[in-house]
Amino acid sequence: MIRIRSIEISVGAFLVAGALAIVFLVVRVSGINLAAGADTYTLHARFDEIAGLSKRSKVSMAGVTIGRVTAIEIDSEYGEAIVSMAIDQRIDNLSVDAGARIQTEGILGGRYVSLIPGAEDEYLVDGDTISETQGAFVLENLIGELVTRMGN
Amino acid sequence: MTDNLIEIEGLRYSRGDRLIFDGLDLVVPRGEVTALMGPSGTGKTTLLQIIGGQLTPDAGRVVVDGQDVPSLSRRELFELRKGMGMLFQSSALFTDISVYENVAFPLHVHTELPEDLIRDLVLMKLNAVGLRGARDLMPSQLSGGMARRVALARAIALDPLFIMYDEPFTGQDPIAMGVLVSLIRGLNESLSMTSLVVSHDVHETASIADQIYVIADGRVIGHGAPDVLQESPSIQVRQFMHGDPDGPVPFHYPADDFLEDVLGDR
Amino acid sequence: MLRFLRLVGQRGLDVLESLGRAGILLFQSLCYLPDRRELPLYVRQLYQIGVKSMGIIVLSAFSIGAVLSLQFYTQLSRFGAEESIGLGLALVLLRELGPVVTGLLFAGRAGSALTAEIGLMKATDQLSGMAMMGVDPLHRIVAPRLWAGFVCLPLLAMVFSAVAIWGGSVVGVDWLGIDDGQFWAGMQDGVEIGEDLGKGVVKCIVFGVVVNWISVFQGYDCVPTSEGISAATTNSVVFSSIAVLALDFLMTLVMYF
Predict the structure, then answer these.
(1) pLDDT at C206 over 60
(2) Is the separation of the CB atoms in B24 and C102 below 8 Å?
(3) In this structure, are residues C169 and C72 in contact, taking their beta carbons and an 8 Å threshold?
(4) Angle at Cα C72 formed by Cα C71 and Cα C73, nearest 5°?
(5) Pair C154, C205: CB distance under 8 Å
(6) Which of the two residues, A94 and C58, has the higher pLDDT score?
(7) Domain enclosing residue B188, as ranges
(8) Given CB atoms, is B101 within the 8 Å cutoff of chain A?
(9) Which residues of A touch C44 (CB under 8 A)?
(10) Domain presence at residue B203
């Protein structure tokens, strides 16, 4: 079988281009995600309204992503949503009175959990639950209230 | 080790609704050039494919070198094909590789010989057909006659027991024809091979064949040495051998009476 | 009426028979895995199928990425949501357009070439000749083309998506003035490796198998005349394209619904 060098070189280039494309797509396009694993620890938070928060929504503090939502369950007794989050191990100084708020990105953006630091000296560890929470802002409720008020 | 390389008895084969062979008997003796001739479309190429094990007959015996071809396993067939060379009508050279690579192909497939030995063999075979200088050309650069000679070199690459030639003389100019004729005869002698030539070039084939089988309507209608067949008692055979335009194979395609046809519309 | 039924039944049986032959072809060819000595054959096929398609893939990708970016901009700027262009572009390309458009382009360029080449080999007795020399054409001709095709289509689709996103960024960031950081950050935040990229790759692999299988089979099974080859080539493009679109619908349904 004849081996033509130029063909082999171009095939090599093609494969390299393909590999580069994959790397580009993985790194630049998908971003390096914080997956649940050894690098993270789990925190829980209860909300009365999560409206639109989903399983892979991000968890951030001061706008910086520090984790992901890993699970959402319902506590039907209290009518609350229990959100589980995987937080980057390196952020290990969240005080026990830290707050969690569900916010929206921009106008059309998705929901995310924003953590607000507290003042206590004791820190949250793996498995703890954040108690200071504020649920998602639902536009329809506000409009409803407005309409009711205007009606009076 | 019988005296006959190929023995075919009572061969029946149909393709779809067409019965191609109906009780064909033929014998190809070792070391001789045997020709298969007949009108177009009688299935001569099909016969070669049956001998080569590419097609399975409906009935009959096909024995090549003592082995019953239709009953061979894939492995046994592979081994048998090492000893068969075939020259196709279209030369069937692999268009994506060079002349050298084409001739080396069977050597690469069937042997584990080192490259330099293969190189020597390929050059010898190309030399035998007079094309050693063309070894680096691509098939698309060859004329029809040259392509056929390369295909011949490829067919003899493994020094086969016998070679089948499918219409080797078709469409060749007189010189190319002469070259092929001398090659076929010459190779048969020098390599002590057996040759089976399928052709309808009466003149050329008659000049090199030791015996001829004339096949028509799915069976053998004439058999013997070339000069004997020229004077055969059968008119069918004579029409073929002499090239008479009209005879048992009619000139006119079946149609109504001529005058009626032409005047009938008036 | 009866004749019509007979005709339908006949056609149905023919189709089943073809499918059967196609299945046998695929199964027997795949049994031949690449061998060290045969590497040059595979390299050559990677060249014929992959490298030669890069031109049209890159050109189409850039254009499509640019156009998408423009269209998204026109619509999203009405809500002041231009930052989402990056995300929208990436999702559309990775999930849908990358695999599908690559599949269609591949079927038209590489698939038809495969069919024509194999068909021509059949018509010039090369396949027969090979068999007579004891080499299985499925081994030497079909298997390398199938395996190379399986590898090439996903790779080409990755290149397509990458170039398209880049094209979109050129239009969006360099030309329309969207903030570079927002463009990429919005994308990185929203695009997930498993959900978007991974499932897109699954689609590519499926398309790769189907398109190459159809193209190779049409060539191998064709009537060995010039009309036969021409018909086979047309069929391979048409069937491949339909298959890509139909499978895309099914997979999207299953994966995202």
Answers:
(1) yes
(2) no
(3) no
(4) 90
(5) yes
(6) C58
(7) 4-83+160-263
(8) yes
(9) 7
(10) yes
CA distance A109 to chain C (A): 8
Q: What are the angstrom distances between the C-alpha of A137 and each of A84, A134, A142?
A: 20, 9, 9
Q: Does B92 reside within a domain?
A: no
For B167, other C-beta atoms within 10 Å of its C-beta total 18
Domain count, chain B: 1
Residue B225 lies in a domain: yes
Cβ distance of B95 and C124 shorter than 8 Å: yes
Overall average pLDDT of the C28-49 stretch: 84
All partners of chain C with 3 or more CB pairs under 8 angstroms = A, B
Across the interface, do B81 and C133 touch by the CB < 8 Å criterion?
Answer: yes
The domain of A117 spans 40-143
**Dist CA C167 CA B50 (whole Å):** 59
Chain A environment of B108 (Cβ under 8 Å): 1
Q: Does C196 reach chain A within 8 Å, measured CB to CB? A: yes
What mean pLDDT, rounded, does chain C reach?
A: 89
Q: State the nearest Cα–Cα gap between A13 and chain B, in angstroms.
A: 23
The per-residue pLDDT string of chain B (266 residues; one tens digit each, 9 = 90 and over) reads: 457 888 888 888 888 777 888 888 888 888 888 888 887 777 787 888 888 888 888 888 888 888 888 888 877 887 888 888 888 888 888 888 889 989 998 888 888 889 899 999 999 988 888 888 888 888 888 888 888 889 989 988 888 888 999 888 887 788 888 888 888 888 888 878 889 998 878 888 888 888 888 887 778 888 888 888 777 777 777 777 777 777 777 777 777 788 877 887 65
Q: Is position A148 within any domain?
A: no
Interface size, chain B vs chain C, as Cβ–Cβ contacts under 8 Å: 43
Give the nearest chain B residue to A1 (CA atoms): B101
Total domains in chain A come to 2
> How much is the CA Rg of chain A, to the nearest whole Å?
23
Residues 6+ apart with CB under 8 A from B113: B107, B121
* ipTM of predicted assembly, 2 dp: 0.76
